[in-house]
Structure formats: structure tokens, C-alpha cells
Amino acid sequence: MDIEEDVKKLIKSKAKEMNPNALHCCNSVSIITKQLNDYIDGIINLNKERIASLLDHLVGYYTITLDIPLDNGLKILRAVKFNNLEKKPCFSELSRLSYIPQNSNITPFIGRLNKYGKSIFYGCLYFNDNFGGYNVAFSEVNALKNEKINILKSETSAEIKVNYIGIYDYIKRESKPYFLSEEMYSYFKAVYEYEEKMFDKYVFVAFQLCDAFFSDILKRKESDRLYIVTSISK
User: Are 178 and 170 in contact (CB under 8 A)?
Assistant: First the structure.
């Protein structure tokens, strides 16, 4: 499959910059990801400025992020816990189930991708209304037995473009994400193979390590330290 020239140009530019110092690049990613993992696991302490700097270095040098178009009519599921046992088991305002407005009296807790007090819309894709289709949404809010969970089902009204964090880790493992079309999967596979062709082997390993790290921390079981890392952004 053909790759756009601007994508090839970006890959060639990174290769030209990094290939002469390939082993250093690989060691750098290895050290950074170990420090971040050690912080998450409580082995070492890092301040937020240091964490932000390490993440910026990984994102700026060792990632190539491309848009994935999602079709109109895509179904998105969102779950929100209803914790008041004395009232009817549902929220009266749609905004409480959707994107929480900035002027709301609800203060969002720190999340996987949002800082404390900052609202963000979390949703998961679903393809049917069977009970099993809700499991991912329940898992995202750590639903417990007998808890009241409100579900918001939405559909996109136009094509939207998203970034899939960790897509190349799927390509490496030859595992196609369930919602990705064969055409898009083939395209990302072609990009991955072009990177392998243009990068020194140690630079290519650095990109693989970086992609695997971001893929892992966005799926790992939540913790205070994990969310400090994943929610940091400038």
C-alpha cells in the first residue's frame, strides 16, 4: 500500500537525525521508560516537571502519530457511577453523563488522561446492545456488584479522526484492533515496515519500546502514580 509523501518525509527526517546515534537513542528510550515505570511502581520519586520532560522527549522524538478516520454512525458507550443510594438511580442532567461543563459544580477527579478538575469525555466503541457489549464501559469505571451505573449511548454524526496510541505495538504483534478496517490496518503496517526499512535497527527498537510503553500505561490497572504520568500534558 502506498504511503503519503509527507509521512515518508517525516520518517526519513527522523532517520537522518537519529541513525548516526542509533545506540544512544535506544539506550535513551530504555532509561526513560524504566524511570517512568519505576516511578509508577513506587520504586523511585520524580517531580512532575521531570515526568513531563521525560514524556515530552518520548513523544517528540520517538513517536509517529497518524490520524485514523472513524465513520459517521459509530456507536460510543460511556458509563458513569450513580453513588447516591437514597435517590432515583439515574442522573437528571445529560451533561452529567456526557462532557462535564467547566461551570459545573462537579469537580472531575484525576483520570487516565485528565488532570484533577479538568473535564474530558471518555467513551468506548461498541457494536451491539447485548449485555456483554457493556463490559468494557463497566470495566473503565471499576463497576462493583449491585452498584448503580448509568449508561450513555451515542452515535457520531460525522466522520471523526482519532489517534490510536500504541497502534504499532499491535502491528508488531500482528494483532488487528477490532474496529480498524483491513485497509487502515494495511496502511499502518506499510508505515511500520517503511520505518523498519529506513531506521537503523537500534532506532527501530527505540520506536518499538516507546510505542509499547504508551500502549501499556494506557491499559494498566489504575493507580495514583500511574494517573499522574498519563494525565500530564503541557
Answer: no
